[in-house]
Every structure is written in structure tokens, then in C-alpha cells.
Amino acid sequence: MSEVLNVEAIFGENVFNLGKMRERLTKNVFKEVKRVMEQGGELSPATADIVAKAMKDWAVEHGATHYTHWFQPLTGITAEKHDSFINHPDENGKMLMEFSGKELIKGEPDASSFPSGGLRATFEARGYTAWDITSPAFLKEDATGVILCIPTAFCSYTGEALDKKTPLLRSMEAVSEQALRIVKLFGNTQATKVTASVGPEQEYFLVDRQKYLQRKDLIFAGRTLFGAPAPKGQELEDHYFGVIRERIGAFMKDLNVELWKLGVTAKTQHNEVAPAQHELAPIYETANIAVDHNQLVMETMKKVAERHGLRCLLNEKPFAGVNGSGKHNNWSLNTDDGMNLLDPGETPNENIQFLLVLSCILKAVDIHADLLRQSASDVGNDHRLGANEAPPAIISVFLGEQLEDVVRQLIETGEAKSCLLGGKLMTGVSTLPDLPKDATDRNRTSPFAFTGNKFEFRMVGSADSVASPNTILNAIVAEAFCEAADVLEAAEDFNLAVHDLIKKYLSEHHRIIFNGNGYAEEWVEEAQRRGLPNIKSMIEAACTLTTEKSVKLFEKFHIFTESELESREEILYETYAKTINIEALTMIDMASTQIIPAVMGYSQKLARTVVDVRAAGVEPVVQAELLGQINEKLGEMKKALTELTEKEAGIYAMKDVKAQAFCYKDVIVPAMEALRKPADELEMLVDRECWPFPTYGDLMFEV
Ligand code: ADP
Ligand code: MG
Fold first, then answer.
1. N or C: which end of the chain has fewer CB within 10 A?
2. Mean pLDDT value of segment 94-107
3. Residues at CB less than 6 angstroms from ligand 1
């Protein structure tokens, strides 16, 4: 038997959670901390000192030597700078580890080398990190030792957000405030807060580390830039939910333990559709904690993979021809007195509050479809959205039969008198129970699907932070709630007004509802007829941040200032241009120093064979034909390489970052494809022994 895992004992072991605070703080101090967590405000300096000391003592008992303000700059990943608890030794040379309230609450990393999109010039590099008291501190154990990590927000000297966390927290406050107005209208005076809850399902690939190290494209770009398809892909559908192989199982077990220690509720694990692809889903939690935890999930996956001689690929499209990876973002709104605003109950037609919430969300998604699309874009996701695997780049909402029927009745008559019920699923086998059946089947092709008591936003990319999608969701829904509350609070007859408003919103925005197959070609045309935006790429989506409509939205709810939005747009162009530049340079490198030399080596061998066979008195028909074919492809490849190299150099020198990003998309990406095509064809012609790096088959099937 393997050793028994005591999950209850290890869960949260490395987290300075409420339980540990309650144990280690006096009653009054604990109460003050809890009040600030729940209601906002600031800790008094004296309390901050006490909390810092308790936190440090706990951390040091667990072997911590350093602390860090852990933050999430606009790179999309996390950043940390370690400071030890070491202090000046006393006159006897003895050193006492110390950590003050000031150090806990505020940090000042040099901000000059993080992307700021022009918000902060390098000569005014001050940036501050501020403790996000609602997300617990935790210990990270790795080769550097044990580090106390304090989740923080990151702002510039002038108070502008330089990170993904600050706007998220602002959006959570906005949606809470507006949602409270809605529930109050329905007579709920108990609730004091509405929390956005998020459960992000994380997809990823695992490949063998030794093989990974032989592929410069995986090393530099995180995805393959060359590679002929393996004889087998995902067509047999035998990987999805398949038996988990031993080596992967050992990884998953280790990963779960690490995550549980960090207080991450790793819950579900399975093989995904593509070979070598897997998924992990945690249990949903408050949005900012879910965002932090998702960062920890991604980081821990990478770390644990190394231990198992594996490499975790989080890029959205590591391999052409098989599914890429996404991150389904499950989202709902919950009051602090225990009500999920997205729970329709048994008979949604009678649940007026739910119907109002639903119509507000439909309105928000319709009006700001462009922003939602933007929030799910990153460079890797351009390969996914719109391809035959992920939802299309067009935002639409799937409601399912039951709700669609209710919506139809409301639009037609202003009232929904009936609703389709779930009923029983007859198994037809006497020894199997007949199962209660949901009123609605699933739809896997919708980018924004209602799934029982939450919405599932399926466009998000696997490598991306879920901060942006949730910031946008909270913001757009806050706006719709605010507009509805403005009308309803002023209404003389609430019941009449709420019915009218639901009917109005549903009638005006039902074009956003689509229950059909989102992958079908006809949908693209239908969506165009409906006037829904179809934004094909990340950089085409970037400008949606700074439209008049979006500046108005974000400024109204104090989520972004106009200059913060402009800076973010700029960073998107920069990131895109830099990423494609790296990919192009990697291809040029691999083509010039690996593929072409390997092909030349093989054709030289072939040429010799041709001579030898002929000398033996036989006509080398096949050998000569193969040599001809290879030479032709090699010529094609060299030509494409020269073109890519020349174009790349020209575009790299451009000054206007937006124009440059578009040139990378319109000129360099096609030039990269042109180089890849003959290279992949050559891979199928050349002796396997001569090919300079592991193939798709090696990477995906021999893990
Ligand atoms: P799927 O079948 O799509 O894998 P699951 O029902 O397993 O979906 O849930 C996926 C994710 O949704 C999990 O992280 C889960 O915790 C989360 N989730 C469930 N209910 C809610 C909710 N009310 N709000 C937000 N997330 C939720
Ligand atoms: Mg899902």
C-alpha cells in the first residue's frame, strides 16, 4: 500500500488563513482584521505591527527566511522580490528576525522594468505594492527555501494601477454595490455584500522534459512552430477522460498535495481531448482569491512537472492539428446571506429577481461583447478562437431550452406562464435507477453558456490570467444593474416597472442569445446579420478598451481611468509585436541552423546513394526521384526563409507600436506559415534518424 494521504491535515498547511490568525492574535486584533477584510478600510499601525509579527513568527516556525510582496504586473504572470527577515545585529552581534506592519502593508519594488504602457517613465520608477488583506498570505517552498508570500496590488507613484489585481478589486466593489441595490429592491435588507465567485478550469499539456529541451520553439515560444502531424491525432477520441497513465498520475498526485497545502481546492482532474492534454478544476471561490489561486495552479504545475522529468505547456496552442488549451471561467454572484443571484430555482418563470438579473446580464454582454472578447485575448489564443475547437470569436449567450422558452414568452406576452421541467431520464435497464434530468442539455460550442446557476465564459486562454475576464464581467454587469436600479428605484409601481424592464431588455438584446452550433459556418453569417461583432485577433480587439463607450463605463465605476486604459491598449500591441518577433526569430534560427543543415546532410547521403547504385549497374529511379523532391522543397524553404528574414528586419525597426503589431499579424504571421509548410513536408520525406528534433509523435505519444 502506498502511504496514506491525510488531506484534511495538509489542506491549508502553508496558508496564514483565518483559523491561524484566530489562534495567534488576540480577540480584538482578530476582530479588527476581520472587519477590514469584510468591510474594507485600513488596519491601524499598531494592529498592522501585531499581525505582521504573528505572520512572521508563523512563517519562521515553518522555516521561512524571506518574505515577498507577491503581485501580478501586466505581464500576465506573477512577480516577487525576496527580502529576508534579517536585521541589524545588536551590539553582541546577535540578529533578531523582524517584520513590521509597514513592511506587511506596503512595499516599494522598482517598477521601471515592468510594462506600463507609457504610464510611468523610467526616471519616475516608483511603484508601490499594497497588501490585499482579503487574499491570505502563504508559504512557497522551493529551491530558494521557504518564502512568505503576501498577495498585493501594484500601483504607480501617482496611484495608477500597474497590475491586473487592482482593477479586479475595484470591479468587485462596483458589482457588489450595484447588485445590492437590486436585491434591496426585492426586499432583501440583510445582505451587505455581493461577491463575484469564480471557478477557472485549467487545461494544460505535459511533455517529456528531455524532448522539450531539444526543441527551441518550445523553449522560446512555448509552442511548436514546426511539426508535421503524427499519424494519429485525437480522432479516435480515446484520450478524453481516458485512464490516466502512471507517470501523469504521479504528477497529478504530487500537484494536488502541493496545491492543497497552499489552500487551493484542487477538485477535478482528467485527461482532455488532445493526446498529452489534461485538465484541473478547483472549487469556485471569491474572484480575487480564485485569480491568485489560478496563478498558483499554473506556477505549481510547472514546478511539479520538472520534478517528474516533464514539462508543462500552458500555451494556448502548443501543437497544430489537435485541440489547444483554454480556461473555462465559471462565474456567479452571491450575497453574503447565502443567495446565488444566478440560481433560477425550480421554476425560473416565477423568479422575477432572477429574470431581472438574467436580462441585465444579457444586456451587458450584448452591449459590451467587444470588451468581453478583448478580455479573453492573448497572443496564443489567436490560434484557438474561431478554430474548430474553441468557441468562435463571436460572443453569444447559450441559455438552454428551459430559459430560452421563458425568455420567448416574456418577449411575446410580457409574462412567462409556464416552464419546461426536467423530468426523468429513463435508463431502460431495470437494475439502473431512472435519473432526474436537468431541464437543459449542455452546449459545448458556446462562448458564454448558462450552466445551471452560473455562467461559463469559455473563451479565456490557458496561459492567461483570469483577472481581466472577471474585471470586465463584473464591470459590465455592474453597469447594467446600476441602470436597472436607477429606473426601478424611481418607479411608482415596482411590479409593473420590473416586468416592463425585463421585457424591454430581453426584446432589445435577445440577438445575443444563440443556442445552436457555434462552430458552424452558418453561425458566422447569422451573427453578421444580427450585427454581432466578430473580432478575429487580439490586436483588433485591443482598441475596444478605449472606445467612448468603454471609457465611460470604466470611469463611472472607478475601475480604470482613461490613461490606464490607453496604457493597457499600448501594452497589448507591444506584447503582440514582441511575441511574434520571438516566434519569427526562433523559426529563422531553427530553419537555418537545424532543419536546412539536416536536410542537406540527408540529400548528400541520397546523392551518394544515387551514384553508388548507378555504379552497380542499376538505375536509381526512386533515389533520384526522392532527391529531386527534397531539393525542390529545400529550395522553397530557403526562399521562404529569406523572405521571412527580410520582412522581419524591416518590421522590427518600426517605431509606431500599433502599426508594427498589425504588420506582425498581416505580414510576418503569413510569412511564418510559408516557411513552416515546406519544412513540415520535408519532415515527412527525410530519414527520421536525420531529423534534428523530436516530432509531434514523440512529444504527444511518448510521454
Ligand atoms: P464542467 O462540467 O464544465 O467541468 P463543473 O460543474 O465541474 O463543470 O464545474 C466547473 C467549475 O465551475 C468548478 O470550478 C466549479 O467549482 C465551478 N462552479 C460551480 N458552481 C459555481 C458557481 N455557482 N459559481 C462559480 N463557479 C462555480
Ligand atoms: Mg466546463
1. N
2. 92
3. 197-199, 201, 268, 281-284, 328, 330-332, 340, 453-454
Would you state the pLDDT for residue 122? 47
Pick the ligand that lies closest to the CA of residue 200: 1
Distance 465 CA to ligand 1 centre (A): 18
Cell of 261: 497545502
CA distances from 248 to 1, 10, 342 (A): 19, 22, 36
Domains for the chain: give ranges and CATH numbers.
Answer: 7-163 (3.10.20.70), 164-201+326-559 (no CATH), 202-325 (3.30.590.10), 575-701 (1.20.120.1560)
> Which three three-digit cell numbers place residue 695?
516530432
Distance CA 358, CA 332 (A): 11
653 CA to centre of ligand 2 in angstroms: 43
Residue 202 CA to ligand 2 center (angstroms) comes to 10
Block residue for cell numbers 501617482: 158
Whose cell is 512552430? That residue is 225
Instruction: Output the nine-digit C-alpha cell for 538.
Output: 487580439
Where b means 16+ CB within 10 Å and e means fewer, 159-191 reads ebbbbbbbbbbbbbbbbbbbbbbbbebeeeeeb
The length of the chain in residues reads 703
Per-residue pLDDT of 608-660, as tens digits, reads 999 999 999 999 999 999 999 999 999 999 999 999 999 999 999 999 999 99
Q: Taking the CA atoms of the chain, what radius of gyration do you get in angstroms?
A: 28
**Nearest CA among 51, 58, 49, 106 for reference residue 83:** 106
pLDDT digits (tens, 9 = 90+) for 300-333: 999 999 999 999 999 999 999 999 999 999 999 9
Ligand 2 mean position, distance from CA 458 (Å): 7
Residue type present at position 539: I
Give the distance between the most distant pair of CA atoms in the chain: 104
Q: Which residues surround ligand 2, an ion (CB under 5 A)?
A: 328
| Ligand 2 centroid from CA 318, angstroms | 21
17 CB-contact burial (10 Å; exposed 0-12 / middle 13-18 / buried 19+): middle
Task: End-to-end CA distance of the chain: give it in Å, rounded.
Answer: 26
Testing ligand 1's pocket by substitution, the residue of 267, 284, 328 carrying the most ligand atoms inside 8 A of its CB is 284
Whether the pLDDT of residue 263 is over 60: the answer is: yes
Spatial separation of the C-alpha atoms in residues 127 and 22, rounded to whole Å: 32
d(CA 575, CA 570) in angstroms, rounded, equals 9
Q: What pLDDT does 213 receive? A: 98
Give pLDDT tens digits for 330-388: 999 999 999 999 999 888 888 999 999 999 999 999 999 999 999 999 999 999 986 66
CA distance 640 to 642: 5
Nearest protein CA to atom 6 of ligand 1, as residue: 451
SS3 category, 130: strand
